[in-house]
C-alpha cells in the first residue's frame, strides 16, 4: 500500500507540474498596432447629427405589423441630406422597400469586399414608462455631455457613426482598394426578413463573396468580466440561434365544482417543473475557448490553471462559469419560460393550457436537439410540442478569431482604444449578421461603445443614451477601420 501511495503521489506531482507549466504558457497577446493620434473631429456637430436621427421614431412594432412609412422616409431623407458625398459617390439602393445598401467601389476587384452592417429600426417604448425617461425617448436631446434617445445604443449610433466616418474619408479624398459595403436593415428588431435577408439574397444573386462582415452585438465592456479591471473589447466570432417552443396540454374541462382527474394546468405545470430543473448541458465552443485564452493571462492564478488545463478540468471550469448568468449563457443553450396561459374564469376548468419556452442555441445545436431534450425531460407524450412561427433558427457557423479579418478589427481597437484588452466569444442574442452567413468567409460582432452593467437595462429599456465624447470615439474607430479594411 505504501508503494502504491508513493507512485500515486509521483503521478500527481508530475501532472501538477505539467498543469503549472501549461498555465505559465498563457501570456498576454501583444497589441497589433500602436495607438494613433486622436483624429480631430467636431464632437458637438457629430452629437447633433446623431440626435437628429434619434428624433425619428423608426419603430418595429411586431413582425408583420405595418411600417411607419413617414418615419422611415424621413430617415432616408436625413441620411441623404447629412451625407451628400456618400450619396453622390457611392452606389446607393433600396432593398426590401426600406433597407439601404451602399457600395464604395475599390480599385482592386481581386480583393473580396467587406461589409459593415447596422439597423435603422428601434424597439417601441414600453407603455407607461415614458415619464421615467430623463428626456423624452424621441426628443433627441443633447445635454450634460450625453445624447439621449431610443437608438442611442441599439443601433442608430453605429449606423450614423459609420456614415460619418465614410463622409469624413470622402472629404479627405481617400479611395479604398477593397470594395466596402454598408448594409442598413429596417426590421432587425423583428427578425430582418425583409431587410438584411433580402440584402444578402441580392448579394448572393450577384455572385458577391464577402471577406468578412461586421455587425453589432458586442462592445467594450467595463467591469463586466469578473477579475478584470481593464476594459475588454469583445470582438465576438459567433451568435446564438433562436427558437421558442410551445408546450400544450389538453384535458376535459367543465365546472370547477366537479373537477376531473386529469387537469391541463397540472399536466403542463409538471412538465415545466421538470424542464426548469434540467437545462441543456453546458459545453465550450471554439469562440468561447478563444475568449478564455485571451483573457486568462489577466485573471487570478486559479482561473488561469483551469483555463490552461480545461481538457482535464472542464467540469470544474464549466461549474465556475455557471455561477454567473452572463458566463453561464456563454456555455450552454439557455431555456427561459416566457409565457404561460390557461383559463378564462375562476369557476371554469380550462380544456387547454400552454406555455412558451424560449431557447438561445449554442453554435452546433440544432432545433431537433432541443426538441429531443424537451421530449426526454418532460416524459409526457400527451404534451403537444411545436416550434413557434417567427425567426426560429439554429446558430450560424462560428467564425475564426485567429483569421486575418479578425486582426483588422483588433488592430483598429489597439489604435483607437489602446487601454482595452481584445477578446472574442459569442453573443447571446441574434442579429442581422446571421443573414449574411452564406455570402461571407468570416462574420464578427462588435460596436465600439463602452458597455457597463448598468447599460443592460438601457438597451431596449429606459433612458437609453451615449456620451458625446464616447460617440466621437465610435466615429474615430470607424474611420480607422475603413482605412485598415479598405487597404
Structure description:
The protein has 487 residues and is α/β, with parallel strands linked by helices. Helix content is 36%, strand content 19%. It has 14 helices and 19 strands. The chain has helices at 2-24, 43-54, 69-82, 84-89, 156-171, 196-205, 264-276, 286-295, 301-308, 310-321, 325-331, 367-378, 404-416, 468-486, and strands at residues 91-95, 99-104, 114-119, 141-143, 146-148, 180-185, 210-215, 220-221, 232-234, 241-250, 254-255, 334-342, 348-349, 352-361, 384-387, 421-423, 440-445, 450-451, 465-467. The chain has a 6-stranded mixed beta sheet. It has a 4-stranded mixed beta sheet with strand order 16-9-8-18. A 4-stranded antiparallel beta sheet has the order 12-14-10-15. Strand 4 and strand 5 form a beta hairpin. Helix 5 (156-171) packs across helix 14 (468-486) and helix 13 (404-416) packs antiparallel against helix 14. The longest helix is centred in the N-terminal third of the chain and has 23 residues, at 2-24. The protein is globular and about 80 Å long. Mean pLDDT is 92; it is low at 4-14.
Amino acid at each position: 500500500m505504501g508503494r502504491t501511495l508513493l507512485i500515486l503521489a509521483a503521478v500527481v506531482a508530475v501532472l501538477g507540474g505539467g498543469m503549472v507549466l501549461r498555465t505559465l504558457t498563457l501570456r498576454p497577446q501583444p497589441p497589433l498596432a500602436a495607438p494613433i493620434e486622436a483624429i480631430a473631429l467636431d464632437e458637438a456637430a457629430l452629437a447633433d447629427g446623431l440626435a437628429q436621427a434619434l428624433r425619428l421614431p423608426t419603430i418595429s412594432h411586431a413582425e408583420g405589423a405595418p411600417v411607419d412609412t413617414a418615419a422611415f422616409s424621413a430617415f432616408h431623407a436625413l441620411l441623404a441630406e447629412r451625407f451628400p458625398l456618400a450619396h453622390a459617390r457611392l452606389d446607393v439602393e433600396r432593398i426590401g422597400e426600406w433597407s439601404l445598401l451602399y457600395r464604395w467601389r475599390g480599385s482592386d476587384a481581386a480583393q473580396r469586399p467587406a461589409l459593415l452592417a447596422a439597423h435603422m429600426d428601434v424597439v417601441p417604448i414600453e407603455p407607461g414608462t415614458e415619464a421615467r425617461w430623463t428626456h423624452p425617448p424621441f426628443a433627441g436631446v443633447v445635454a450634460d455631455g450625453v445624447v439621449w434617445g431610443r437608438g442611442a445604443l441599439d443601433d442608430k449610433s453605429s449606423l450614423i457613426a459609420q456614415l460619418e466616418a465614410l463622409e469624413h474619408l470622402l472629404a479627405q479624398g481617400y479611395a479604398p482598394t477593397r470594395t466596402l459595403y454598408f448594409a442598413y436593415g429596417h426590421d432587425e428588431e423583428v427578425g430582418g426578413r425583409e431587410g438584411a435577408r433580402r440584402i444578402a439574397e441580392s448579394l448572393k444573386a450577384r455572385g458577391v463573396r464577402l471577406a468578412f462582415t461586421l455587425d453589432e452585438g458586442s462592445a467594450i465592456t467595463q467591469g463586466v468580466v469578473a477579475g478584470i479591471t481593464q476594459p475588454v473589447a469583445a470582438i465576438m466570432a459567433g451568435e446564438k440561434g433562436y427558437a421558442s417552443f410551445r408546450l400544450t396540454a389538453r384535458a376535459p374541462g367543465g365546472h370547477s365544482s366537479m373537477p376531473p382527474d386529469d387537469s391541463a394546468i397540472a399536466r403542463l405545470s409538471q412538465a415545466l417543473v421538470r424542464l426548469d430543473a434540467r437545462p441543456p448541458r453546458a459545453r465550450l465552443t471554439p469562440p468561447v475557448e478563444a475568449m478564455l485564452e485571451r483573457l486568462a493571462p489577466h485573471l487570478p492564478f486559479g482561473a488561469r490553471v483551469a483555463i490552461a488545463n480545461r481538457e482535464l478540468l472542464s467540469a470544474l471550469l464549466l461549474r465556475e462559469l455557471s455561477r454567473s448568468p452572463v458566463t453561464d449563457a456563454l456555455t450552454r443553450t439557455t431555456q427561459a419560460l416566457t409565457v404561460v396561459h390557461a383559463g378564462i374564469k375562476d369557476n371554469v376548468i380550462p380544456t387547454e393550457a400552454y406555455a412558451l419556452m424560449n431557447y438561445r442555441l449554442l453554435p452546433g445545436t440544432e432545433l431537433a436537439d432541443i426538441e429531443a431534450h424537451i421530449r426526454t425531460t418532460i416524459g409526457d407524450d400527451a404534451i403537444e410540442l411545436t416550434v413557434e412561427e417567427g425567426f426560429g433558427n439554429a446558430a450560424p457557423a462560428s467564425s475564426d478569431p485567429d483569421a486575418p479579418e479578425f486582426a483588422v478589427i483588433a488592430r483598429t481597437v489597439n489604435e483607437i482604444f489602446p487601454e482595452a484588452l481584445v477578446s472574442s466569444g459569442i453573443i447571446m442574442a441574434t442579429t442581422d449578421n446571421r443573414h449574411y452567413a452564406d455570402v461571407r468567409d468570416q462574420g464578427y460582432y462588435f460596436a465600439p461603445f463602452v458597455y457597463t452593467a448598468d447599460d443592460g437595462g438601457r438597451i431596449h429599456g429606459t433612458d437609453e443614451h451615449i456620451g458625446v465624447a464616447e460617440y466621437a470615439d465610435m466615429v474615430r474607430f470607424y474611420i480607422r477601420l475603413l482605412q485598415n479594411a479598405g487597404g
